[in-house]
């Protein structure tokens, strides 16, 4: 997905003649303890719009950090989490990024949730040489440049993601709509944001290429709650499916009003809709609706068993099933990179740059699957899943990959 943020930090202690390296510090136990605190910061919407998925990211990172400390993954280092709230607003994300960069204790960042927020943060981190890994951004241009469809060029070497892109997600949804659902007439709506508009455009291109017809298009604003005019247009268009590019905040209301008006057609969206909150708000109106999301269901992966159990045991808020596992793996990539760079608790002066290089060479099995990155900083895990609301729950109906050339 998406368009809305995370962080990594170290606690600073100055005491008399204690000499510290440029990044990282000895903690309050004193220099004799040999302990250095490295804080992984999280930037995501923790309140307001998209907060259910934002909180899932925050606590996915928290579990990774707790596991690293419990297992003494990096000898001489204690990890902590600092979570910052961007409220799904790009300007807030940029302010958070600037704040994190200015703190020399910060060695890396996880987030943001939303692609639109990411565009405001990338250059800030890149200028500082500070690694950033998003567990949820899906806009292709973030890693492959504005002209990614004709000439891929990586704009920022410090930016990575553990979620696959909309270039695959849009096509995967279009393919499922045409071939499996056998829908031929679709109405397409988006929220005019980087993620939503981009996803809708890619769905449209792939659906029409397959032979389908887009019978109408429209846009909504984030925060809208009255969709009466749009619902009438969709109902009168004769569409047999509504494709929505955007977040659950608006689509959960749109589908309810659509069904109430007598348009008994499914609403299909991307991972921005994949949240239990969508079903709770839409109620029975959500039945039959669909989404695509990155990866395969986290609950089906043996490696994620302990992660899911811990999340539930701790009673953490938010939706862990959307990006929690990808946040855990993003944090783990940074933790492993710190382990390669920080030896015996000693943080070198060029730690940030060394960590960027170490993340680029990540190669391990995480809770969401294998974790590694290609030359653009994109995940090599291209798995996607279609989910449908059945009996009030998101149920996986198809997992696989999508080849744009097919």
TrEMBL record:
CDD domains: PBP1_ABC_LIVBP-like (cd06342). Residues 37-392 form the Leucine-binding protein domain. SUPFAM superfamilies: Periplasmic binding protein-like I. It holds the Pfam family Peripla_BP_6. Gene3D superfamilies: 3.40.50.2300. Residues 1-22 form the signal peptide. Coiled coil: none annotated. Keywords: Signal. InterPro entries: Leu-bd, Peripla_BP_I. Belongs to the leucine-binding protein family. This is Branched-chain amino acid ABC transporter substrate-binding protein. It comes from Streptomyces achromogenes.
């Amino acid at each position: 997905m998406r368009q809305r943020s995370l962080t990594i930090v170290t606690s600073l202690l100055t005491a008399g003649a204690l000499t510290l390296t440029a990044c990282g510090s000895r903690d309050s136990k004193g220099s004799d303890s040999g302990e250095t605190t490295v804080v992984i910061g999280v930037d995501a919407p923790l309140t307001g719009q998209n907060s259910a998925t934002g909180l899932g990211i925050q606590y996915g990172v928290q579990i990774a950090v707790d596991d690293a400390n419990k297992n003494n993954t990096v000898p001489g280092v204690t990890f902590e989490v600092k979570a910052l709230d961007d409220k799904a607003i790009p300007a807030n994300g940029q302010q958070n990024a600037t704040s994190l960069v200015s703190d020399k204790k910060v060695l890396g960042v996880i987030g943001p949730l939303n692609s639109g927020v990411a565009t405001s943060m990338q250059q800030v981190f890149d200028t500082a040489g500070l690694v950033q890994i998003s567990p949820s951004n899906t806009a292709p241009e973030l890693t492959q440049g504005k002209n990614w469809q004709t000439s891929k060029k990586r704009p920022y070497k410090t930016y990575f993601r553990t979620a696959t892109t909309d270039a695959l997600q849009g096509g995967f949804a279009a393919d499922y709509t045409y071939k499996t659902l056998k829908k031929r007439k679709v109405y397409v709506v988006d929220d005019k944001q980087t993620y939503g508009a981009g996803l809708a455009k890619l769905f449209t291109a792939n659906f029409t290429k397959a032979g389908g017809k887009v019978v109408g298009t429209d846009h909504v604003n984030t925060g809208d709650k009255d969709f009466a005019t749009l619902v009438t247009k969709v109902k009168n268009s004769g569409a047999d499916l509504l494709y929505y590019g955007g977040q659950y905040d608006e689509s959960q209301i749109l589908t309810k009003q659509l069904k109430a008006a007598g348009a008994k057609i499914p609403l299909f969206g991307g991972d921005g809709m994949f949240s239990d909150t969508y079903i709770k708000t839409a109620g029975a109106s959500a039945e039959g609706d669909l989404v695509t999301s990155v990866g395969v269901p986290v609950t089906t992966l043996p490696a994620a068993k302990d992660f899911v159990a811990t999340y539930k045991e701790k009673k953490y808020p938010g939706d862990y099933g959307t990006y929690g596992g990808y946040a855990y793996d993003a944090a783990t990539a940074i933790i492993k990179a710190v382990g390669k760079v920080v030896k015996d608790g000693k943080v070198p002066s060029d730690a940030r740059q060394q960590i960027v290089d170490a993340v680029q060479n990540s190669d391990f099995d995480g809770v969401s699957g294998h974790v590694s990155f290609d030359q653009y900083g994109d995940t090599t895990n291209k798995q996607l899943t279609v989910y449908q609301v059945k009996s009030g729950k998101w149920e996986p109906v198809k997992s696989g990959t999508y080849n744009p050339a097919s």
